[in-house]
Amino acid sequence: MKEFKEIVVISGKGGTGKTSLTSSFAALEGENTVIADCDVDASDMYIILEPEIIQSEDFYSGKTAKIHTEGCVHCFKCKKVCRFDAINVINGDFVVDELNCEGCSYCFHVCPTRTIEMRDNLSGNFFISKSRLGSYLVHAKLNIGADNSGKLVAKVRDEAKRIAKENDKKLIIIDGPPGIGCPVVSSLTGVDFAVVVTEPTVSGKHDLKRVGELLKKMKIPGGVVINKFDINPEMTEEIKNELDNYNLKLIAQLPFDKIFSDAITVKKSVVEYDNGEIAALIKDSWGKVKTLVNNK
Prior knowledge:
alpha/beta; Rossmann fold; Alpha-Beta Plaits; 2 domains; 9-stranded mixed beta sheet; two-stranded antiparallel ribbon; 36% helix; elongated
């Protein structure tokens, strides 16, 4: 049995208010939790939590071929076997296009003179920080064009779990990436509960369906927060009517309010910025989430 609970906040698309909700949950728990920002392609929790970096390290994943021109006999074998058109001849030299190279190592194995080297890719950076809330924040930054975001997400989660265990923290709150791709699956694997943030639009409804089907296949319990529910009441009702298909519970309906953007502007979570209706609804939502997780 795990010594802590993991709650992930995800969305089928970007711009639904996912990070605003996650940062509010983090603010409500304060130093009692560990925060894991698994949206490594567009990490932005640090903007709100203003962390002080304690530890940072490079993240290497995958390989890229490098051809050393000295010793190359121009046999063209590497170019012939490359399925990704990553090897070009420039001014008589064989050169690897790093963006096209998939690191399969085929060229390395066929090179008769062993002048091809497979180098580890510097894919991004990884950080352990202390947020202004007193909580630990584990976050990362994937380099532009880099692959293996799922592996970097796994690294973030592994470190968050280690910190939670070493510091006797009973809860990890994860800000997951949008969509249903590899980094989302990596964010979801083994969690105790998923909070899905959606909005009443055609794209929001379809993206919620994809996320709901994914959660159902992974057998992860979850609930839904419908943000801006009042901009399209009919679509809101359609979404609510479909939740049972994915075994999802309705956690809250939040009305449209520019407080979300206003709070981000001053680098605060919504519940810190205002004590009005939205803040009260978010506090109630967090209470429901914790009840559902504890009763799981």
